[in-house]
Amino acid sequence: MLWAPTPEHKSMSTGRSELTRRALRYARSSWAVLAVLAASVTALAFSLTKTTDSTEPGLLAVRPTPDDLAQPEKPGSTDAAVHIPEKARQFIKVDTAAALSTGPAITVPARVAFRDGALAEISAPVPGRVVKTMVKVGDSVKAGDALLAIMSPSAAANRSDLTRADAELTAAKDLVARNDLLMQRGVGIEVDLLAAKKTLSEAQAEHDRAARTVTFLGKGDGDLVTVRSPVDGSVVDRHATIGTMVDPSGGAIVSVGDPHSLWVECEVYERDLPLIQLGASAEVQLGTVATSVPGHVSMIGSALRADSRRAPVYIELGSNDLPIRAGMFARATIQGVPSTAITLPAAAVLIKEDGTKSIFVQKVAGEYLRRDIEVGLSSGGQVQVTRGLSPGEKVVVAGALLIDGESEQLL
After folding, report:
1. pLDDT of 63
2. Which architecture, in CATH terms, is 105-117+258-335?
3. What is d(CA 408, CA 406) in angstroms, rounded to the nearest whole number?
4. What percent of the chain is predicted at pLDDT more than 70?
5. What crossing angle do the helices spanning 190-217 and 153-185 adopt, rounded to 10°?
6. What mean pLDDT is reported for the chain?
7. pLDDT band at 198 (very low <50, low <70, confident <90, very high)
């Protein structure tokens, strides 16, 4: 017996078909909405990318688009001009190149230091132990004043050697005198006289050596050695206290410097050294002085420091009555050697990937021509142009990256 759908079954089937058709219509409309949203998001992202791609502040809304800037006919050519629309020219500054005789001002870090020969670093004359200290850091001393006392067995031995050498020298002199007297009386032997004179010479040499050693130790008796200041000044450092073991090879134990004999030691980069000469004027800024202190270059170091690639340059201040101390930090501005050259701001010079340096020269308003150049010394944000530019030409000194965004600035 075959099954036949009843009216109730037909009604249920019709309802399911209607639900299926409605679901399909809803799905198609949803996909359409999603497609429209995706297209809108993509367009918005592309628009933001174009309007925010700016290398200079203030160009968010008016940065020229690729259609606004006319590119050179031949990429990299120095003969093809670049045209800039009027609305973008406000971000480009042009100045006229001129050859001026100027001396660059070189500003460098510096510190106050003792002049050459004004600092005495005193070490122990013999090995021993410190038993007494007579000064502390900051004390003023005169030449010959006692600084500290050392107990040393070596000192006692050296002084004993001098006493023994004195006795041997006296005996040698007596022997020579006796043999000389015998020779005068005709009963002496010449060989004995010669031997006595030889002994006297040896005794004299030993006595001189022992005397120099004891003189080096200074005044004193037995094993006590007093270390004294060789110069007038103030105690800068003292690296020994009571009980410290000291040795001549252990470095300075006391430093005495003249506080009135100071100068300023500058650290100058090797590229700036050719710009500085002896006698050049300078201005030094110190934390304890309200105004700049004038001075001049009195010495230039002959070797670079390997760790910093800088050379010391010493400035003698115009006054010695300043509230300064050795070790203070300072900042010095040295007037460089004057020369006649075209000088541009460093931001005007562009560098391409191959290292070529170039500028943009204005032909007419809104039209710029790339020009390859060679540069010389640079200092204080300025760079000298040695080839490729003539006085009177108009050069883009600000906004060059707006014309050529593929290069980098010489900063």
Report:
1. 47
2. Beta Barrel (2.40)
3. 7
4. 78
5. 160
6. 80
7. very high
30 confidence band (pLDDT: 50, 70, 90): low
Residue 51 has pLDDT above 50, yes or no: no
Would the CATH topology of 105-117+258-335 be identical to that of 120-257? no
Does the domain at 81-103+339-409 match CATH 1.10.220.30? Answer given as: no
Under DSSP, is residue 293 helix (H, G, I), strand (E, B) or coil?
strand
Q: Which two tokens stand for residue 41?
A: 């998001």
As a whole number, mean pLDDT of residues 127-148 equals 93
3-state secondary structure of 268: strand
Single out the residue of 147, 274, 300, 295 nearest to residue 218, CA to CA: 147
Cβ proximity of 381 and 345 under 8 Å = yes
Task: Domain ranges for the chain, please list them.
Answer: 19-52, 81-103+339-409, 105-117+258-335, 120-257
pLDDT tens-place string over residues 153-164: 999 998 899 999
Q: What is the pTM of this model?
A: 0.56
What would be the CATH architecture of the domain defined by 120-257?
Answer: Beta Barrel (2.40)
CA gap 339, 274 in Å, rounded: 12
179, 322, 302, 312: which is closest to 260 by C-alpha? 322
164: Cα separation from own chain's centroid: 57
For 56-112, the DSSP string reads STT-TTTPPPTTTSBPPSSTT-SSSEEE--GGGGGG-EEEE--EEEE--EEEEEEEE
